[in-house]
Amino acid sequence: MTERMTGAQALVRALEHVGVDTVFGIPGGAILPAYDPLYDSTKVRHVLVRHEQGAGHAAEGYAQATGRVGVCMATSGPGATNLVTPIADAYMDSVPIVAITGQVASGAIGTDAFQEADISGITMPVTKHNFLITDPADIARTIVEAFHIASTGRPGPVLVDISKDALQQETTFNWPPTMQLPGYRPVTRPHSKQIREAAKLMAEAKRPVLYVGGGVHKAAAAAELLQLAELTNIPVVTTLMARGTFPDSHPQHMGMPGMHGSVSAVGALQKSDLLIGLGVRFDDRVTGDLSSFAPQAKVVHADIDPAEISKNRHADVPIVGDCKEVISDLIGVIQASGQLGDYADWWTTLNGYKETYPLGYETFEDGSLAPQYVMERLSAIAGPDTYYVAGVGQHQMWASQFIAYENPGTFINSGGLGTMGFAVPAAMGAKMGRPDATVWAIDGDGCFQMTNQELATCALEGVPVKIAVINNGNLGMVRQWQTLFYDQRYSNTDLQATRRIPDFVKLAEAYGCVGLRCERPEDVDAIIKKAMEINDVPVVVDFVVHQDAMVWPMVAAGTSNDDIKIARDMAPRWENEDD
After folding, report:
1. Are 440 and 466 a contacting pair, CB within 8 Å?
2. Residues 6 or more apart in contact with residue 45 via CB below 8 angstroms
3. Catalytic site residues?
4. pTM summary value
């Protein structure tokens, strides 16, 4: 296919050919040439967001809910720099998005022209790759390369910055173009010798743990993980980014590890003699003080990104490869050898942790609402087929702890970067990617006020998301740290919600949404059910909860996982210390 057209037309045509159906963005001077042919496209729906940050998070939500590449678009200068936060967020959580930005004309680059910013330079540390295009002949090929890089190997964000004159000039459009990526060859097939070594360690271990991260979900390997776990009878922990990749209801599931993980999951890692890390980063929020993390454990570490292997914790058996193939090969070797470990004593210990230290929470004598109760009821009423999209903070941790996740990919949140303002636009993107699914955003009153302008986009575009605002009148996680570590000196964390500025119900209504409020435990079920019945417009529920509700368990930052607290000044008593 060869045709003469402008660079802007080539851009839109290329997006159509790579299968893009939705682009989130805002026009501006440098990108404006691209918006003209976009106006005529019958295949690509452009969603006019209210802030570029919203465009980026919506692209992330779309990508995480569908497994496809999300796309956002912005103009040069401030438009592009407003995308930096979601690009960095996508980079930390390995989310495949392509961000397309306009740039000033090529002759003006480097002159501090109006609305010029070196967005390629700015985003270089937080993109998987980025491109600056000044020749219209490069546009179609670069788009194909960008989508290939974003979606293969370890997924991640790719930036395509296009000068205004490249969009305006004519070029010959050739399809399909030939990619020119000679140095990009991600390894997906694991080395068979390493697989055999891992299987041998698993059979010899007495206290092994399958330490499962977001890479297993990214590899669409939940079914293989379940098969491996049931074949070997090894306990499983799922990180924040892997919630739902292994069913919560499965008896082998120990819960989520880390700073706010369950005692059973944290204890399993600390007391283990073998960690089988699958698609994990050995992140500081999981390991706590790295020097004291799982001190007796050998480590098998499988990841598609060789840079992650032994980055934080030395791997005794390093395996570079796609988790789906790694797990499948492990299953094959274990079945062929027939060698299975005996973990009876290990299970006695772990089941003791589960029974003695289940997740719990405090109720309040004044009858005020416990946020954990809201999560429990939301989980029960909305069910495991719902997509839950969380912001960052206490509400995110409660959502990870008290909602039951049975299906992979149903918990979408900002893990690595911890971006306040993620939930509303990401939920919008998830709902547009999965229009037949129920999507609940779970947000804090602090996070919600960062990007709630996207409610206007949801209302106008017909995207009926449901938003639970966990309103404790504070920047809750920061307040919790002030309570525990700063002598209850609450410096600049009080949002003064008692004055209802803003009134979230009125705000929702002003944006064309339904606004509801819940302040008593006895009203929770009825209000959630009412929200579930409204499917033609967005719904915002203001859950007014107790300001002193805390997230427990907790491992204080920088301390050992052995020092986990189940409540203030209360720690579990570890059994079998002589092990």
Report:
1. yes
2. 21, 22, 23
3. 52, 114-115, 164, 477
4. 0.97
